[in-house]
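[SOLVED] Need 3D model of a three-part complex

Original post:
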Amino acid sequence: MRLELLGIAIISFFIFTAIFAPVIVGLIPHDKSEPYSPPSKNNLLGTNDIGEDVLVELIYGSRVSMFVGLTSAFVSTIIGSFVGIISGYYRGFLDDFFGGLIDLFLVLPALPLMILLAAYLEPSVWNIILVIALLWWPNTARVVRAKVLELRESQFVEGLRCLGANDLYIITRHIIPNVSDLLFANFTLSVARAILLEASLSFIGLGDPTYESWGSMLHYSMKRGGLLNGAWWSFVPAGICVSLATMSFMLFAMGLEDRKKRTKAIGLEV
Amino acid sequence: MKKMLVVFLFVAFSVAGCIGIEKVQDGENVQKILKIGTTMPIKADNIFVDYYFGILESVFNDRLFTIDERGKIVPELVESWKVEEDGKVWILSIVKNATWHDGEKLTAEDVAFSINYLKAKVPGFKAHLALVDRAEPIDKYTVKIILEKPWASFLANLVVVRVIPKHVWEKVENPLEYYGEDRNVGSGPFIYKGFDKTAGIITFEANKNYRLGKPNVDKLIFKLYKNTEAELMALKRGDVYTTYFYARGLDPIYVPALLADQNVRFLVETNFGVDNALWFNNKLYPYSVKEFRIAISYALNYSEYSKTITAGYAETPKAGFVPPGWSYYKETRELVRDLAKAAEILDSIGFKDFDKDGWRDLPNGSAFTMKITLRSDLPESTRLAEMIKRDLEEVGIRVKLVPVDGMSFRKIAEQERSHEVVISRTTMWGMMMWAGYGSGYVDSRNIGWANVEDQELHRIVDEMLKTTDEARVKELAHKIQDLYAENLYVIPLYWGKIIQPYRADKIEGLVYNPMMGILNKKTWFSVKVKE
Amino acid sequence: MSLFQYFFRKFARYSLVIFAIILLNFCIPRLMPGDPITYILGEDIYYVAPEQIEELKKEYGLDRPLLEQFKLYMARLVRGDFGYSFSFGRPVIYVVLEKLPMTLLITIPSTFMGIVIGAYLGIFTGWRSESVFKRLLTNFILLVYSIPSYWLGMIALLIFSLKLKLLPLGGAPPLDSDLTTFISHLILPIATLTIFTTAYNAVIMRGVTKGISEEYFVMTALSKGLTKIHFLNRHLLKPSLPPLIAISAIEFGFAFSGALIVEIVFSWPGVGLMMLEAIIARDYPLLQALFTISALIVVLANAIADILCILVDPRLRSDF
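Solution:
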């Protein structure tokens, strides 16, 4: 339980930083200096390959990570829950179709396909969101489908159907409220995955070069001599941020999971 | 699970089995081996398939003409040549003492065959040799090349022609799929010995029968690295003695890390290409407005680009675009940053912020955003673009960066010419294209990133293409640089240096060539590998 | 549903998936901007007339209608001919077979170790996870799971290669290297991959074990006073076997491409790095082959896992 709180605390911290980035940046020293200057009074975390302040980049980077993480998780959860509910509730042809689709997506090697798509689309934050959401929804859909199948067979829903309640009523009043916990936990996990994936794509150089993100900081450090120049400050902090942000969302999800007794693994599998 | 284990063991043993095979010692005398590291992504050892392996061709094969240290075209396999019918017929006399690695004589027959064969079968050469009607041997050592129309600068095309042995290639239907043992038989100072793809090692041995004598080193080894870090660590450890990358040299960002090493020294050479420049599509409004382009030139922070991208290994460019080093270089106005002047010019031609949204609009009042296309696969290019965006925004010009991959870049900037502004670099050879002095990139009738249709430029280029008189060529070269400086069709962002690191305790005597870098004849006969 | 019907249904579904993969693989590369012709022409920029480009496209069959290209593609695929790689200048199948051992060399040991260690850690932490140590361990696993693999790789390079100078800065070992050099090249990529497969498997197995440990039959079994070993075998290992089989199957398939980012950081010349090069070069045939092969392996592994799971635990059949 305490760890869940820690997760929430870190999440709040990053979201706060993202929202108030310009204000925070105004409060810290961030002169432009020589490329790869080590941490000093003027640049608390040193500078990068073009002499810009690493801390400032980190602060602005939180915007990209949080935005991409939350938005793409939101989109994929919406798609996933829609498909999962429809397919689990109606079964039959729809289930065959969507089930096949889910199988297909789960089988495709995700990262290479994302790289391929990201290389195809022009590099922008929106396209990255699109790519992540497009390839991530089946994970949500599969979990939701299983749960809906279970609910559908429950005596309560059977009963409602016998009483002549229509499908829309059953879905909105009984199915959705019952999967909402699951959806929320799954959404939280999706955010964690999306943050990691955005960082990976940017690291490979398929991110949006007009926005500095944590992943692109790692990219430039790797590509422009950060390692050989021994400038650990150009990549260590960015990696810590990615890990912390990802972990905080996972801790939160784990907490949610632990709270519900007797749930199967809600989809921690990836 | 067991199966996996079996597969793993199989793989492990088969690889382990390979270890220790190539441990042959040369007992008699110590071999002089020159080891060069490279990050060029060589994938196949066929010069027609792999562009970067094609770069290494200069090691094992001689060409008709080559480039000297001053960037002038000089004969290599050719002894003398003459031009007839105003440049429509070219007659080359070939050296008489050249032989192929397999012992056969290199004759006019081979040269004529090469030209016809390349034009017919190799994609890239269809463009290089587009003007060639046919080549035919006149006698054993004389070859006649007939063009479709007169072409004064045909020599630049002959520089890239690969002379290949007729007796090997005449039986080959598709050179792009040929992997016969004799595919890399050449006439050069080294003999190709093989490419170990797994370890990334390409080996050459000295050609004892080379017509200019045996090179100074017995063996030449290229070690391929996937990244510069690994390559430079190998240099520091002494696994390689120097590094190579075609038309680039070492990325200056790595120089500080190497300076601490006592044994590593640098050759710092003039780059005959322009490292990075801002190319306007001069056909498109508002880039067609000269004053607008000039205003932009005052908004750019040249010294910062040089400092952050090249670690200071560059000079502030001049408006004449063509970098110093070229024989007919002309000193023109230095480009400077002057924000007040930029704003003043923009105001005077009506690019003002009419709607008070903080951004300058077009004189007719509509909003304006400059779209700069750049290559997303080159980190220094995206970094540069970020800085340019910031600098232009300081004078109120809104900028949108459009990063695209290398392939799309060529499609947009060359085939479609749908770009507004691009950031790109030129190689030395590229500067020689068309009428030379970068005209190929500027003139709308050639590659034309700058898409210039200016009558005066076209006239100068046309005359340069026809003139063989050196004095006149010099005049024209000065004229074209003045024209560049006055119009700023393209703004050079910095004139970089080529940095060539080497281990001073292992080798000495590397000679730099503006086109091929250290891979040139002078190096082979002056380099010394120390014990 | 009879077992036969069940298998038939599964078979039909997997066949559809395979067809969809083939179709997708055919379409995506052709939708990408830029065309391979520009690559064939090389990096040096020179002027190429539009007619010449058309001519080249014809030579490479890229000008034919899509349907015809697809028919050609299918016919070749059936024969196991994946076409000709533009950028490597050789038939795709050779190129892939050449790089495959390199990838297997780092993925097989790491997948294997990852599954064993991960499963153990997962069962250990998932089974009655009240102790402080177990909770700490769980959170540590979670932390590792959150770390980007390439970042850990970069730090490893900084420490072991640049500072301590113990290990090489990536790349494959040269053929003539001795055993120490050979192993020194393998350590970092395999270690990095192992850490991540371990964390991944541990997280999943923990979830599975937790689910099982809370089910009632376990409670009854324990209340019946079975010995611990007996209990572990019969009630924990057996039911947790199907998910483990499924994971292992998927992992094996993904090993083909999963090492991609790790290969980039360590410049390991395997399939993953080649995939990135193929994308940059717009090498359609090579990309198609890589996707088809890796996706087929995953489907196959899944199908086998399905069958195995059913045989091990018939209860699962009711899921479908």
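Edit: The mean pLDDT of chain B is 89.
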